[in-house]
């Protein structure tokens, strides 16, 4: 029987081929695990840092987060959360310059543009982030991903009630605007500016956030700064058991009044009043929506809970965290499904110890 003789050259190529195949098999089996390991380790550290923050161990949280911020292996997605939490930790320690630095690092991760959720973040952090973004880009305008999307800003309403009712329903100055923003947000082809951004831009351009002083000229000026199509402002007045909302919708580009809308009804049906108003306003800017679709997005149907929540937001913006926390808790007691109040409570816990 004849034996097969393999030359040394062929043998070397064969051994090299086997080695290459082994390397490929190793990468296929073990490389995903190696890549996944840093991600898993990052998430573990981030969770630990969050636990430190929630229990007021901010120095320990900052140490962990700084390590992650400097780690080139940490993904862009994770660094978004790292810098945001780092900003919260520095803010809790009243280290505002470093908090702003962390927000600047967060903004630098764009594109895409990173937006903060005002219901989950402290108002001061949100406004600081707006300032950082303006410093970086030179513009305070909102981002419009699609030119076909209509954009609207809703200013606080003026309370024109008198007597005891004026004080009782005063929180609805911001409450009605907040409610309308919630009801209209997320609708197809419509982007609604968050109330915190409007309050910030008013301060930026030297205007007092006083609904009694809002007029057509104010609406146009605010609208141009924000880069929106339209601005809504108005007032409310009432009589026993009833409420009437009167509004004007201004087209920013031409400064003209697009519409004047008035709705009235029982005060206990406050969410239905704003839903009717919101649906009418949306149609005026060519956004098709039903009143039911708007009403379904109401955060609460309890008037008392809404009053407490609106009062809490005002206190939160003033930095009175403990009083705000109490208001949000009371709102939750009246309506346990009030998700906006729950988010505010969670955002406040690390700030009040």
Features:
353 residues; alpha/beta; Rossmann fold; Serine Threonine Protein Phosphatase 5, Tetratricopeptide repeat; six-stranded mixed sheet; 58% helix; disordered N terminus
Describe this protein's structure.
With 353 residues, this protein is an alpha/beta fold. The protein has 3 domains: 39-137, Serine Threonine Protein Phosphatase 5, Tetratricopeptide repeat, CATH 1.25.40; 150-298, 3-Layer(aba) Sandwich (Rossmann fold), CATH 3.40.50; 302-353, Tetratricopeptide repeat domain (Serine Threonine Protein Phosphatase 5, Tetratricopeptide repeat), CATH 1.25.40. It is 58% helix and 11% strand. It contains 14 helices and 6 strands. Strands 1, 2, 3, 4, 5 and 6 form a 6-stranded mixed β-sheet that branches. A hairpin with a 5-residue loop joins β5 and β6 (257-266). The longest helix is centred in the N-terminal third of the chain and has 47 residues, at 8-54.
- Main pleated sheet: 6 strands, mixed
Shape call: globular
The CATH superfamily of the largest domain is identified as ABC-type transport auxiliary lipoprotein component
Compute the CA-based radius of gyration.
Answer: 27 Å
Mean pLDDT: 89
CATH class category label of the largest domain: Alpha Beta
Strand percentage lies at 5-15%
CATH topology of the largest domain: Rossmann fold
What percent of residues adopt helix (DSSP H or I)? 55-70%
Show unreliable segments. Answer: 1-7, 9-36
Number of helical elements: 14
Q: Give the total of beta strands.
A: 6
Tally of individual domains? 3
Order of helices and strands: HHHHHEEHHEHHEEEHHHHH
Class based on secondary structure composition and strand pairing: alpha/beta
Distance N to C terminus: 88 Å
CATH architecture of the largest domain: 3-Layer(aba) Sandwich
